[in-house]
Amino acid sequence: MKPVKVGVIGIGNMGWNHARVLSLLRDAELVGVADPDAARGALATEQFGCRWFADYNDLIEEVEAVCIAVPTLLHHPVGMACLKAGVHVLIEKPIAANEQEAGELIAAAEQAGRLLQVGHIERFNPAFRELLNVVANEEVVVLEGRRHSPHADRANDVSVVLDLMIHDIDLALELSGAPVVGFAAAGGRSSDGPIDYVTATLNFANGVAASLTASKMSHRKERCLTAHCRDSLVEADFLNRNLRIHRR
In this predicted model, what pLDDT tens digit does every residue of 32-46 receive, in sequence order? Predict the structure, then answer.
């Protein structure tokens, strides 16, 4: 089977990582990267042996699939262009800046008959996969998530909810197995710009509750999710990829 011809649109931190991994896969051919930064493009060409495109529209004419890693506010126009061109899309989270744009991307993928996947990478973290296995036979009562980071010059076009907390909302939905029926949240900001600290409580239809915090104001990095179950406490550390189980 021939390798899938793939391109990467946007080669900041996440896009660079996508390009690096794709260049190592036997089932994929990294055709090129698209980014308006010529210096960054030249570096990618040298590093990964691919082509650089200043305009992503030129890249999508050459590939079967793309990874989109542009700022969130550009997810919708770039994603729509790719899907309308008949290209499969892996788009970094969040899928879009708002619900309407997300719905339009989903509809465009269905109409084009192309795959549209969102890069919720924590779903594939070994610690989360094992957490799912452990709680499958437990009665989950409360989920507690902490996703904290020091300030960084990335993803500052959206709030900490869409940048960080969205991971744990996704995981909580998977673990609870029920829709959200109520929520409350509060947050703040350390400077001008989007909110960079949020604490939220989610209530699910089956009675499970989730308490989540996300911060870009922390002095250390933390990625943890704890399942408080009727007969156990299960702690997942996504950074170190391990699980701790406490039983009565």
Answer: 999 999 999 999 999
